[in-house]
Amino acid sequence: MSANTQPGIDHQGAHPLDDLIRTDRIPHIWCPGCGTGTAFSSCLTAIKATGIPYNQFTMVSGIGCSGRAAGYIKIDSFHTTHGRAIPFASGIKMARPDLNVIVFSGDGDLFAIGGNHFIHAARRNMDMTVICVNNLIYGMTGGQVAATTPSKAKTTTTPFGNPDAPFNLPLMAYAAGASYVARWTILHVRDLTNAINEALLKKGFSFIEVLAPCPVNYGRRNKQKSLDTLRLYREKTIIRNGADPARADIDFGRGVILGTFIDRDRDTCDELYDATCRRNED
Amino acid sequence: MAFWRQPLDTQEIHITKGLVTIIEDRCKGCGYCIEFCPTHMLAFSDRFNKKGYHPPQTSRPDDCVNCHYCEIICPEFAIYSVEAP
Amino acid sequence: MKPAVRTGNHYITGDVACAEGAIAAGCRFFGAYPITPATEVAEHMAERLPDVGGTFIQMEDEIAAMASILGAAWTGVKTMTATSGPGFSLMMENLGLGVCTETPCVIVNVQRTGPSTGLPTQTGQGDMMQARWGSHGDYELIAIAPSSPQDCFYHTILAFNLSEKYRVPVLVMADEIVGHMSEKVVIPDAREITLVSRPRPKGRKDRFRLYQPGPDGVAPMPAIGEGYNVHVTGLTHDERGYPVMTPEAQEEMMTRLKGKIRNNLDDIIRTEEYRMEDADIVIVSYGISVRTGLTAVDEARRLGYKVGLFRLITVWPFPEERIHAIAARVKGLITVEINLGQVHYEVERCAHGQAATYLVGDAGGKIIHPDKVVSLIQEVFQP
C-alpha cells in the first residue's frame, strides 16, 4: 500500500484551523518540539470558539520566535518591533475600541525589553488579551538568559548558570492591575484554550502565561528533551484555580502552580476615557 | 465477584469512534501526538516526509475515540480527527 | 462635537498652532509623552481631541507613544505625536517601522539643544541629520521646518497631506523658539483647507496585495477589520506583505520605498525665495533661522551686497537640484542653522564646488543674530 492511498493520510490537508492560518506560509519557522505552535494553535481554536467574526480580531506580535505568530494568522496582523507589541496594540484599541486585540509574543519581548509597556497596559486595564509564550529563554538569538530563566539554568550568556532570579509573571500582571491572569502549559492545552477563550471574552487586560518548551536553545543546555519538558509539565505542576499569584514562581522542584489566578472586573481604559474625557455637550 | 457496582447505564454509553487524518508534509516529528494519545493508537512511521521527518501513523486506528488531543497539541496543524462515519 | 477648524485670528504659540493644524488636518489620535518644549502640543491635543471625536493617550514613554500612533494609523485614522530631542531619539526605532510598513503619521519635533539632555530647554536645530538618518537602515522620509506659529499651523496640515499621500512618516522639525513663541495665527475657513487622505483599496479583497503600488509608487492602504486580512511586518517583505529573506526582496522593497519619494520630488519639495532675483550671495536656511536670514539679507543689501535667501520648507528630501543650480550662478552660499554644521554639509555637497560655501552656525541655546551673517559677508565678499 503506498503512502498516498493509506487510509487516514490526507496529503491535501484540510485542518479545522486552515481557515484561520495563512496556509501558504506553512510550515512555520518553529523548531520541532517548540511549544509556540501549540500555544498558537490553541489561540486560534479559542478565537474560533468565541463565534465572533474573524475580522473583528487583530493580532499584534513583537520580535522573537513567538513574535512570528502574527505572520501565520489569517486576520489583520502586525509584526512590530522588539518589545513594542503592547503599545502598538494600545494604539489600535484606543482608536478602534470595538476591535478584539490580541498580543501574542514571548517572554523576552513582553517582559524584558517590553516590560514597562506591559505594566502600564495592565495598570490602565487596556482591553486586550496578552498571550505570553514563556520558554524561559531568548530562543531566536540562540539561547541567552531571559528575565524568566530559572536561577542556575545554563544559557549561552550564563555559561556557569544563571546568577539572577526570574520574574513571577502572574504576580507582576496582578500587581500591575490585570483583570484576568492565568497560567497553563502546552500540555494542558484544553485548559489553555478555555482560558484564552475566557480571556478573549473578558473585558479588560487579560494575561495568559503559556509554559512551552524550547528544546533547541533551552532544553539542550539543560538536559531536557521536549518530551522530558512535557513530562515535567505533567508531573510537577499543580492546578489550583484562585491561587495567590505570590505563590506562582516557577520552581519545578517544588511544583509549579497552574490555573486562573485572577478574574476580576474593572472599567477599561477606553471606557474610562469616554466617561472622563468626552463631555456631552448639546 | 466484583467489589464495585456496575454503572447502570454501561450498556447505553456509546464511545465515539474517530478517524485521524495526518497531513504528513506539515509534520516535524516532535512525537507529542504519539506520546500523549490517551489510547496510544499512534506510532512513528518508517516513511520520511518531504522535510525528512518521520510523521506518525495510526498503528491501531480502531482505538481512536475522537478526543482531538493530537489535533490540539500538534504544533504544526498536521493532524486532526473527525468522528468516524 | 465642537468644530474641528477654529476659523479666525488667534494669538497662539507654535506648539498650539501645530495642534490646531493637526486637528484641522483631520488628526484624530495623539500618542503623547511630555517633554519640554513640545509638551504644549500634547496638552492642547488632550483638551481638543475628545471634543472632535478623537482620542488622546499619554503613553509610558516616547517609544510607546510612537508605537501607539502606528497602531492607531492602521485603524484608518490620522495620527500624530510630538516630542523633543531625547524623546526623538527614543522614537527612532518605531519611526523605522513606520517607514518600512508605510504607515502614515506625523511626528513633531520641537527641537532643543543636545547632545543628551543638553541645554533644557533652549532652542537648537541639531536634530536635522537625526531626522534624516536617525533610524537604522537606509530609507527616505519627509521633514518640514516651520519658521513661525503660522507656519506651524499650515505645515502640520502639509505634513499630514504628504504623509497620507505617500504613506510615509512626516517630521515637522520645529524648534523651541517657534514652538514657544506667540504670534498671530490666521486659521482659515475649513473649506479653504485642502486635505489629502491615504489611497484606499478597491476591487476584490481576496486578490488584494498589501504593497502593490499605484502609478505614483504608493500602495492603497486598508484599515483593520475591513476584511483584507493583511499581514504587516517590519521584516523585509514582498508585495503581499509576507516576509521574504532574500537580497532580491530587499532590493525590490527598497527600490520602491525610496522611489516613491525620489520619483516625486517635484511634488514633495517646497522652498521659498526672498530677494533672489539678482543675488550673487545666497543664504540657505530653514526653521527659526530663516528669520535671522531675512534680516541679514536686508541688512547686507543696505550695505550694497546682492544677497538673497533660499528657504527650505522641506528639508528632507533635500532640494539637491535647486541648490546645484543656484550654486552655478552665485559666488557664495551661506547656511544659517543652530548647530555646528549639518544642513551646511548638504549644501556643500550639492554646490559641488561651483560656489564657495560658508556656515554661520551656533552651538545652540539662542537664535543666531543677523549681524553674525552680515559680518561674514563683509569679511569674505566685496559689495
UniProtKB/TrEMBL annotation, chain A:
GO annotations under biological process? Answer: cellular respiration; small molecule metabolic process
Name the InterPro entries on file: 2-oxoacid:Fd_oxidoreductase, THDP-binding, TPP_enzyme_TPP-bd
Q: What is this protein called?
A: 2-oxoglutarate ferredoxin oxidoreductase subunit beta
GO MF terms listed in the record are:
2-oxoglutarate synthase activity; thiamine pyrophosphate binding
Q: Which residues form the Thiamine pyrophosphate enzyme TPP-binding domain?
A: 63-210
Q: Which domain of life is it from?
A: Bacteria
Question: What does the record list as coiled-coil region(s)?
Answer: none
Specify the species.
Desulfoprunum benzoelyticum
EC number(s) on file: 1.2.7.11, 1.2.7.3
Keyword annotations from UniProtKB, A to Z: Oxidoreductase
UniProtKB/TrEMBL annotation, chain B:
Instruction: Identify the InterPro entries for this entry.
Output: 4Fe4S_Fe-S-bd, 4Fe4S_Fe_S_CS, Fe-S_Ferredoxin
State whether keyword Heme applies: no
Answer yes or no on keyword Metal-binding. Answer: yes
Q: Which UniProt keywords apply?
A: 4Fe-4S, Iron, Iron-sulfur, Metal-binding, Oxidoreductase
**What is this enzyme's EC?**
1.2.7.3
Concerning SUPFAM superfamilies, the annotation shows: 4Fe-4S ferredoxins
Domain 4Fe-4S ferredoxin-type per the UniProt entry, residue ranges = 18-47, 54-84
Q: Which principal EC class is assigned to this enzyme?
A: oxidoreductase
Stored PROSITE patterns: 4FE4S_FER_1, 4FE4S_FER_2
The record's GO molecular-function terms, alphabetically, read:
2-oxoglutarate synthase activity; 4 iron, 4 sulfur cluster binding; metal ion binding
Q: What is this protein called?
A: 2-oxoglutarate ferredoxin oxidoreductase subunit delta
Which organism is this protein's natural source? Answer: Desulfoprunum benzoelyticum
Automatic annotation (TrEMBL), chain C:
NCBIfam families per the UniProt record, alphabetical: PRK08659.1
The segment(s) forming the Pyruvate flavodoxin/ferredoxin oxidoreductase pyrimidine binding domain are 20-254
Q: Could you identify this protein by its name?
A: 2-oxoglutarate ferredoxin oxidoreductase subunit alpha
Keywords from UniProt, A to Z, are:
Oxidoreductase
Q: Does the keyword Oxidoreductase apply?
A: yes
Cross-referenced InterPro entries:
2-oxoacid_oxidoreductase, PFOR_II, Pyrv_Fd/Flavodoxin_OxRdtase_N, THDP-binding, Transketo_C/PFOR_II
Q: Which Pfam families match?
A: PFOR_II (PF17147), POR_N (PF01855)
Domain of life of the organism in this record? Bacteria
Describe the location of the Pyruvate:ferredoxin oxidoreductase core domain by residue ranges: 279-373
What is the organism lineage in this UniProt record?
Bacteria, Pseudomonadati, Thermodesulfobacteriota, Desulfobulbia, Desulfobulbales
Task: Decide whether keyword Oxidoreductase is in the record.
Answer: yes
The record's GO molecular-function terms, alphabetically, read:
2-oxoglutarate synthase activity
* Species this chain originates from: Desulfoprunum benzoelyticum
What EC identifiers does the entry list? 1.2.7.11, 1.2.7.3
Q: Which Gene3D superfamilies match?
A: 3.40.50.920, 3.40.50.970
